């Protein structure tokens, strides 16, 4: 077999392998309907750093409830289906926003399969005031936020796809 034939066969095999490889990570557009329709591992969006440059959260975009809620949590069915780890406790009282999210991004980046995280405040206004976060394996659709009593949500954060 000539060198050219061997090269062509090798290129054909490589092309077949590349075409057959699964596309990862899966991607969702920024829109609410796209996030609700798919179980993506990353999304497009404005880095949360632009909201508070003093606490850089470059690899994640902020996700808020589809309706205006001050006391909210994550739907339990979605929570259980996508749970990675947590809650993780952060010594960051309610007045320190978004320090809890800033710290939680490092926990998410270190956890295998983490695509998003949700931050809330525990026991605000008490001596035990702190932030907590939980990690998930899919982006947070705004529709999974539910009204609750006593859980002061500080927002969800979805991993931004890297091109």
Helix content: 25-40%
Total count of helical runs of at least 4 residues: 4
Tell me, rounded to a whole number, the average pLDDT.
75
Number of domains: 1
List the strand order in the largest sheet.
3-9-6-7-5
* H and E order: HEHEEEHEHEEEE
Molecular structure report:
This protein is of the alpha+beta class. The protein has one domain (26-159). 26% of the residues lie in helices and 27% in strands. The strands form three sheets. The chain has a five-stranded antiparallel β-sheet. A two-stranded parallel ribbon has the order 1-2. A two-stranded antiparallel ribbon has the order 4-8. The longest helix has 18 residues, at 3-20. The protein starts with a helix and ends with a strand. The relative contact order is 0.22. The model is unreliable at 4-37 (pLDDT under 50).
Short synopsis of the structure:
The protein is α+β, with helices and mostly antiparallel strands and about 160 residues long. About 25% of the residues lie in helices and about 25% in strands. The chain has one domain (about 25-160).
Please render the helix and strand layout as text.
Blueprint: H1 3-20, E1 27-28, H2 32-37, E2 42-43, E3 60-63, E4 72-74, H3 76-82, E5 83-90, H4 99-110, E6 116-122, E7 130-136, E8 145-147, E9 152-159
Parallel strand pairs: 1-2
Antiparallel strand pairs: 3-9, 4-8, 5-7, 6-7, 6-9
Can you tag this structure with a few keywords?
Apple domain-containing protein; signal; two-stranded parallel ribbon; globular; five-stranded antiparallel sheet; 4 helices; 163 residues; alpha+beta
